[in-house]
Design goal:
By secondary structure, the chain is an alpha+beta fold. The protein has helices at 2-26, 73-106, 110-150, 161-208, and strands spanning 29-33, 39-42, 54-57, 63-67.
């Protein structure tokens, strides 16, 4: 009876050992050579090799993957900065492509671009023309006021307060109209600068487009 009990205990121990061995074989093994040249292995990433490459091995001993060294805080910061710069560059390039597509859609040729430039300049010219007409009216009004003021030239103290006020208002309005005309001249310069910049970019984009069917080919040089 005792021998039978001992046999069952031995069988149970052997079975438990087999289970533990099989369980261990299902996991990975990490292997590396540390800074001192020692070849280390473990069932988890090896702390002594955190600054160097490690191999994660299958139970069969083949390499499952390479575990790169862990980065220091400074190295991670540099890596993140580099990745951020790459993302920003990619975003800029995508935005540039979007703008180029929008330009080509809006201006398929130079005639369309010239038409919009002329329309924008025409609006500025209309505003300037209105300001110029207003200035002419103010000049005529000022001539009448000056003629009335001439009556009080010998004794300016007798000039009515109403006349002095109207002369001051006329002068102020003329100054404002001149300033407004000057600002519109600046606006026309900005309009032309914007369209010139667009045209330079558009010419490069138009050159990349396929020629329309039936269009004559450029003469060979």
């Amino acid at each position: 009876m005792a021998s039978k009990t001992a046999w069952w205990m031995i069988a149970a121990l052997l079975a438990a050992g087999w289970v533990l061995s099989a369980s261990a074989q299902q996991g990975s093994i990490y292997s590396c050579v540390d800074a001192k040249g020692r070849h280390l292995t473990s069932d988890r990433p090896i702390t002594d090799c955190i600054d160097r490459q490690q191999e994660e091995l299958n139970p069969s001993g083949t390499v499952k993957r390479i575990v790169p060294p862990s980065l220091t805080a400074e190295e991670r910061a540099r890596q993140e900065a580099k990745a951020r710069q790459a993302r920003e560059k990619q975003a800029r390039e995508a935005e540039e492509k979007r703008r180029d597509l929008a330009l080509l859609t809006r201006y398929p040729n130079q005639a369309a671009h010239d038409k919009e430039r002329n329309a924008a300049l025409a609006i500025a010219d209309d505003v300037m023309s209105a300001a110029t007409r207003r200035t002419a009216l103010l000049v005529a009004e000022r001539q009448k006021l000056d003629a009335e003021r001439e009556f009080y030239r010998k004794d300016p103290s007798k000039m009515p307060a109403r006349l002095k006020r109207e002369i001051d208002e006329n002068q102020q309005q003329m100054t404002e109209q001149k300033r407004y005309i000057a600002s519109m001249e600046g606006e026309k310069s900005r309009i032309n600068a914007r369209f010139d910049e667009e045209l330079s970019r558009l010419r490069a984009l138009w050159a990349t487009l396929p020629a329309p069917p039936g269009a004559p080919r450029a003469a060979a040089r």
